[in-house]
Structures are given as structure tokens and as C-alpha cells.
Write a structure and sequence with these properties.
Layout (H helix, E strand, L loop, with lengths): L13 H11 L7 H10 L3 H12 L2 H6 L1 H17 L1
Helix pairs in contact: 1-2
């Protein structure tokens, strides 16, 4: 589950790279992603999303996977605008 983009040594820990790898994948249906997070990363979905949200503000994550991080930032900003 640690599928990586060719970004070189970004300085991210293995778990941080794994979180971004989960977000790069498409998921077949409800629950599949949460199951992968629990089984593959050993994290609760709540903790996973806390880590993910922190990664979106981390310049190392942006350098490692700019496409995924920018996409998720746009989604987050849209959700914040709706509130």
C-alpha cells in the first residue's frame, strides 16, 4: 500500500507517504477506503483524516505529490466555503 510517485526523497515518513498513496487510489464503493485504512495502515478513520489534513498543509507533502495534495486542498477549500 506504499505506492509512491517519483518525487525522490521528500522527507516524509513512510506512514505519511502511505496516507497520500491511499488518496491517490480510486475506491470501488463505500467502506472500502476505510477498511484499507484500518487494515493497511492500522489507523482509525478519524486518525487517518487528522493526519491527512495536517499533510495538506505540509510543504513536504506538496513536493512529494503535488497533484494529490492540490486536489485535496481544493476539495477542503470548497467544503469550508459551503459552511
Amino acid at each position: 500500500m506504499t505506492e509512491e510517485t517519483p518525487a525522490g526523497d521528500s522527507g516524509l515518513e513512510e506512514r505519511e507517504r502511505a496516507v497520500l498513496a491511499v488518496e491517490r487510489r480510486s475506491w470501488p464503493g463505500p467502506g472500502a477506503k476505510e477498511r484499507a485504512v484500518r487494515e493497511g495502515l492500522g489507523l482509525s478513520p478519524t486518525r487517518y483524516y487528522q493526519l491527512l489534513n495536517a499533510l495538506l498543509d505540509d510543504p513536504r507533502a506538496l513536493a512529494h505529490d503535488p497533484v494529490t495534495v492540490n486536489r485535496l486542498r481544493r476539495v477542503r477549500e470548497e467544503r469550508e466555503r459551503r459552511r
